[in-house]
Design goal:
The complex is a heterodimer. By secondary structure, chain A is mainly alpha-helical. Helix content of chain A is 72%, strand content 0%. Chain A is built from eight helices and no strands. The longest helix of chain A is centred in the last third of the chain and has 27 residues, at 151-177. Chain B has helices at residues 4-22, 28-40, 42-66, 91-95; strands spanning 110-114, 121-125, 138-139, 152-153, 155-164, 167-177, 192-199, 212-223, 233-242, 262-270, 279-286, 293-302, 312-324. Classes of the chains: A mainly alpha, B alpha+beta.
């Protein structure tokens, strides 16, 4: 792959991208209804970033610049879902994207650190259940069948556990801020 | 005019809907309700954004655990239920299994081994004697496999020996080019995938109701590029379980992967290294009673496209069915 002209070479770009990749993924999640869509958009966005790398003037400007690209690619991609899934309107997604773009860069890292502490406080079975949706396709439905519960009741339980995690994260962040 | 209790109720409802939305469990009416709340409430949008961030952090945590089997949390102890081969897989059982049970997946054969007198039985599926990729070198057939026990897929090749870290592998699989799927002409070439179908009907014939059955694939990947090579590459090992006829799947792949009765995946991301070494990954999948066959998938996905990095390899594929009978129950009368 050839190197675009500009201030950054391939290695520097890759370092910047990898440093901010998870933050960009979280940013895309705000606009996209599934993780498959997020992964696809990140792939496409990285190609666009590489092609437009000549526009980037400084390393400090990478994240806002990359968010613009991810936002555009997310809004473009989500149109695929508009016919067959219950998704938010373009107007709401624009609003969510704009507010997420303005959020402090450190917010995701702080949430992440607090979440890891809160996750460690869950009982092992609850932690397993909370992580199950990310462990493979249909894992939650499988757990529901195994436990003899309806998928809906298990999702409710998952929702309550996630809300508990959210409250824990908020409490930790509030404590740190005070 | 809304009072504080109305605000609190609305916020609780909003947060409940956010979680259902992020879990993919919200119906169209709930999504509409959430949209209405988010549109008028800045606080609800802040909650939604934080919910997305937490969702991202959870996904990262799950990925870390899946790439570090030793750190995996204990399983959920579920209630046993008739009709399933068994509940969530048991780490205790896996830990007690015999070591060194290795198979490749080129030649069809089945071997049974017992790890202890009364616990887990390990059935090796599709064994190969040299723990590698068979006796023949050369390009793999293209396209999704049309019959069991044969590797095929995107551009990939079985190549002669490779010595890594002082260990010699007689034949290894080299990933060459990402490819798109035949049945999805508009799809893009995201990764180089190779597949094999494994018929499970015979291996599962002797499984009894109540047994815990887990299908497991272990393989190792090598990124033999210089340190900090770009793009990074994600190696993936995945299992899908299906009901029906394995020979018919190629006509509806990849769309049919949504019909899988279960699946399991594990992955590792690399960027080469000064002293490259094999990275072992293991994916597991609880076996559903409806499962007739499995698809195992090995993939190398460059994380910046388009690109087709070379020197990416796989070797030592092992597929095993692990069966753990239910614990015996004794009735004690006072």
């Amino acid at each position: 792959m050839s190197t675009p002209s500009g201030a950054f070479d391939e290695t520097q770009f890759l370092r910047l991208y990898l440093r901010h990749e998870e933050g960009l993924r979280a940013f895309a999640r705000v606009m996209l209804p599934t993780w498959e869509a997020v992964d696809e958009v990140l792939q496409e966005s990285s190609v666009v970033m590489w092609k437009k790398l000549g526009q980037l003037e400084s390393a400090d400007g990478f994240l806002p610049w990359a968010k613009v690209i991810v936002r555009f690619e997310s809004l473009r991609f989500r149109r695929r879902f508009s016919r067959d899934r219950a998704v938010f309107s373009d107007a709401l997604l624009d609003l969510l994207a704009a507010e997420a773009a303005e959020a402090p860069e450190s917010m995701f890292e702080q949430d992440q650190a607090a979440l890891n502490e809160c996750l460690a406080r869950l009982s092992p079975p609850h932690r397993e259940l909370v992580l199950a949706p990310y462990a493979g396709d249909g894992r939650v439905a499988m757990l529901a069948q195994q436990s003899g519960r309806s998928a809906n009741s298990l999702y409710k339980m998952l929702g309550r556990l996630r809300e508990r995690l959210l409250s824990c994260v908020e409490a930790r962040l509030a404590k740190e801020a005070s | 005019m809304m009072d504080d209790s109305d605000d609190m109720t609305l916020r609780m409802r909003s947060r409940e809907l956010v979680q259902r939305y992020l879990l993919g469990a919200a119906g169209p009416d709930e999504v509409s309700e959430l949209e209405a709340i988010l549109t008028r409430s800045r606080a609800a949008r802040d909650d939604f954004r934080r919910g997305c961030y937490i969702d991202s952090a959870l996904r990262q945590a799950a990925a870390r655990l899946s790439s570090s089997p030793a750190a995996a949390p204990p399983p959920v102890p579920p209630a046993r239920r008739a009709g399933w081969f068994g509940p969530w897989f048991s780490r205790r059982s896996l830990a007690s299994m015999a070591a060194g049970l290795a198979v490749g997946v080129c030649c069809a054969s089945a071997v049974w081994a017992t790890s202890s007198s009364h616990e887990t039985t390990v059935q090796l599926v599709s064994a190969i004697t040299d723990r590698g990729f068979g006796p023949h070198v050369g390009r793999l057939p293209r396209g999704f496999p049309v019959r069991p026990e044969v590797w095929s897929g995107d551009e990939a090749e079985i190549v002669e020996g490779r010595t890594v870290g002082g260990a010699f592998s007689p034949r290894v699989l080299q990933f060459l080019e990402p490819g798109s799927d035949e049945n999805d002409p508009s799809g893009r070439a995201v990764s180089c995938d190779v597949f094999q179908l494994i018929d499970l009907r015979r291996p599962l014939r002797s499984v009894r109701a109540g047994d815990e059955v887990v299908l497991e694939i272990t393989t190792r990947f090598l990124d033999d590029r210089p340190a900090n090579s770009s793009p990074t590459v994600t190696f993936i090992a995945k299992i899908y379980l299906f009901a029906g006829d394995p020979a018919a799947l190629h006509r509806v792949w990849p769309q049919a992967n949504l019909e899988a009765v279960a699946s399991g995946v594990s992955e590792v991301t690399t960027a080469g290294g000064e002293a490259p070494d094999w990275r072992t990954v293991t994916a597991r999948c609880l076996v559903h009673r409806d499962a007739d066959f499995a698809v195992v998938q090995l993939a190398a996905r460059p994380n910046l496209r388009p690109s087709a990095p070379r020197n990416l390899f796989a070797d030592d594929v092992r597929v095993a069915v692990r069966v753990t009978p239910p614990l015996p129950v004794r009735v004690v009368e006072n």
